[in-house]
Specification:
The complex is a heterodimer. By secondary structure, chain A is an alpha+beta fold. In chain A, 27% of the residues lie in helices and 32% in strands. In chain A, a hairpin with a 2-residue loop joins strand 1 (27-38) and strand 2. The longest helix of chain A has 18 residues, at 192-209. Chain A is globular. The chains are: A alpha+beta, B mainly alpha.
Chain lengths: 376, 268
């Protein structure tokens, strides 16, 4: 009796209760004012972002935007010059890669060329001194997960095709059993069709595993397909982060809008009467915004918003011009319309294509509410 | 259809190749034949052949000790130079550090230095330090010249090594030692193996450095030279031939190991 009384409550139990109080939506990764400076260049220049448990976040940016440096800091291959990176509330700024419960799938995949598929997948298990039989069982399980045939177990990894290598790299990362998986555009070297298929598989794998994925790529198209949230990076800064839908429909800047490919843009200024005018003085209808007189903004009209105005229909803004060229984009048609010294793009579904061809005089236009207005 | 000029070019290539091979191998073959001559003195054409001088060479206790010296020096030089050169090659080709450029140039210098001068300079140093020249000092002298060569041989392999493999291994939780054992060494081993073969053969056949720095201990090349200068017998070409043949065997065996391992890996 007295013995039982004297034994204190194990401290572990208390901690467990504390953990349970934490909301499930707490960020698994948190970045606060993260900067990385090389010489006098800030490769990453103040990033703040919270990544939630089980989220698929993609960071998109052109080469040199700092996205790879950011990922390398998250994975522990670089330390931030300033700011904080926390993983489940623990500061991990200077925690080396081998101590972090995270794993990076490299652009080059970094498969060990002298090892078989099985040996590659088992690598992190061998590090943990797992017995060989257990390792093999786990490797085969992971190969099923990434849809690699069982007889590949003893195949030389360099004899695998590009797509198969991706699967090996993925299985190897899963074998490490990380809390967060990082991807440094591993699909960039593959052909289009295979890439599309693997993007969808990766998304499935994300859902099935419930792990947090952070993916970086220069292709917004790739980001859109897979991600819960997309962040757009430019010159070391996160310009915008949001759902693919938000990024597409409400780009924060012209840079973000341009990331989706070709577009029509108009630099406009608010005149003294409160209307909007183009640089050549012509008026233009812009949906209400909070800009003051004298402010300049950019009006973006995506090619699929721009339409041919024929017959009784009309639009807020009209431009007359001549079709210069037409391109087939598969399910869609794109027309290049010359008006004065400017070139506009109009896209229409093939089924709804107006049967126009080069040389035809046309009127194109759009409604103010369909255009996107971004700051100068 | 081959044109006339193509036929002529092909014929020329054949003749030229035969000429080059003849120029390289004829003297070696003549040397080998000289060891099979029955006569005491060197002269062509050889009138009668015998294996007498080969037998005497193989039976000679003096030559046994030469072979032992040469083997001992070559083995020790190989071991030490491969370890030094492996880390040297990583510094040469893998890591970017302050002074790397200078290191890359400095390491080349001994290779371009005439070996007799290098040998003499080392001997002067050994004297100044009060060290008696022996086979051990010859090992040091060989290392001065061979480590840079082996460093370059291994560095070539290191240049083709993808450093992200080490990063990936680290990311998967591996320690430095585990990475070295499981990733770096297995990938670089063909270069290391080639470097070891180079080290062995360069030490085995080295004459100028041994001449100056081996002191009273003799090696095969040193003995060959001294006997040619004074006291020639067909044992000289016989031992020369044996030395060359053993070098060829080492080289072929080394190549075979590389081929076998490569094939085993490729078959998986």
């Amino acid at each position: 009796m007295s013995l039982a009384m004297s034994s204190p409550t194990p401290p572990d139990d208390t901690r467990k209760t504390d953990d349970a109080v934490l909301p499930v939506t707490a960020p698994v990764l948190q970045l606060v004012g993260v900067r990385k400076i090389f010489g006098d260049l800030a490769a990453v220049d103040g990033i703040n972002v919270d990544i939630k448990e089980g989220e698929f976040v993609t960071i998109v940016g052109p080469s040199g935007s700092g996205k790879t440096t950011l990922l390398r800091m998250l994975a522990g291959m670089e330390s931030p010059s300033e700011g904080y990176i926390t993983l489940r509330g623990e500061l991990i700024n200077d925690m080396p890669a081998d101590k972090r419960p995270t794993c990076l799938v490299f652009q080059s995949l970094a498969l060990f060329p002298h090892k078989t598929v099985g040996e590659n997948i088992e690598f992190p298990l061998k590090v943990r001194k797992m017995p060989a039989a257990e390792r093999k069982a786990r490797a085969l399980e992971l190969m099923r997960l990434v849809r690699l045939p069982e007889h590949y177990y003893s195949k030389n990894v360099m004899r695998c095709s590009g797509g198969e290598k991706q699967r090996v790299a993925l299985a190897r990362a899963f074998a490490y059993d990380p809390d967060v998986l990082f991807f440094d555009e591993p699909l960039s070297a593959l052909d289009y069709k295979l890439k599309k298929a693997l993007e969808k598989e990766l998304k499935d794998l994300h859902r099935e595993s419930g792990k947090t994925f952070v993916y970086i790529t220069h292709s917004l198209e790739e980001a859109m397909v897979m991600s819960d949230r997309v962040g757009v990076m430019s010159r070391g800064r996160l310009v915008q982060i949001g759902t693919p839908e938000e990024i597409y429909t409400k780009p924060a800047t012209r840079f973000v809008a341009e990331f989706f490919g070709e577009l029509n843009s108009f630099d406009v200024r608010r005149d003294s009467q409160g209307g909007w005018i183009l640089d050549d003085g012509r008026p233009i209808v812009v949906a209400p915004t909070g800009e003051a007189i004298g402010d300049t903004v950019t009006v973006i009209v995506r090619p699929e918003i721009m339409r041919f105005v024929t017959g009784p229909s009309t639009a807020d803004n009209l431009i007359t011009g001549k079709i210069y060229n037409e391109y087939s984009l598969g399910s869609r048609m794109q027309y290049q319309v010359h008006a004065g010294d400017k070139v506009y793009l109009v896209e229409a579904a093939r089924a709804a294509a107006p049967g126009l061809s080069s040389g035809d005089n046309v009127t194109i236009g759009w409604d103010a509410r369909d255009a996107i207005v971004v700051g100068g | 259809m081959e044109t006339h000029s193509q036929v002529r070019a092909r014929a020329f290539v054949k003749v030229w190749t035969a000429f080059v091979l003849l120029a390289i191998y004829l003297p070696i073959i003549c040397g080998a034949l000289a060891g099979l001559s029955k006569g005491r003195y060197f002269g062509f054409p050889i009138r009668s052949f015998s294996t007498e001088w080969w037998d005497r060479t193989l039976a000679s206790l003096e030559i046994q000790s030469l072979v032992q010296n040469s083997l001992l020096i070559a083995f020790i030089v190989t071991l030490i130079s491969v370890v030094f050169a492996f880390f040297g090659a990583l510094a040469f080709a893998r890591y970017d550090w302050r002074g790397r450029k200078l290191f890359q140039k400095a390491i080349l210098l001994p290779v371009f230095f005439p070996q007799p001068v290098l040998g003499l300079a080392l001997l002067l140093w050994f004297n100044a330090l009060g060290i008696n020249p022996s086979w051990q000092t010859a090992v040091v002298a060989h290392l001065v010249w061979i480590v840079p060569v082996v460093t370059l041989v291994i560095a070539i392999q290191v240049y083709s090594f993808d450093p992200t493999l080490e990063e990936a291994a680290r990311d998967l939780g591996a320690s430095r030692w585990f990475i070295l054992r499981e990733v770096t060494l297995p990938i670089l081993w063909p270069g290391i193996w080639s470097g070891a073969l180079f080290a062995f053969l360069l030490s085995w056949g080295n004459f100028p450095l041994s001449l100056y720095t081996a002191g009273v201990d003799s090696t095969i090349p040193k003995w060959l030279y001294s006997k040619m200068v004074a006291g020639y017998s067909p044992m000289v070409p016989a031992l020369g031939t044996m030395s060359t043949l053993s070098a060829i065997v080492v080289l072929l065996a080394g190549g075979l190991v590389i081929t076998l391992v490569r094939r085993r890996r490729a078959d998986a």
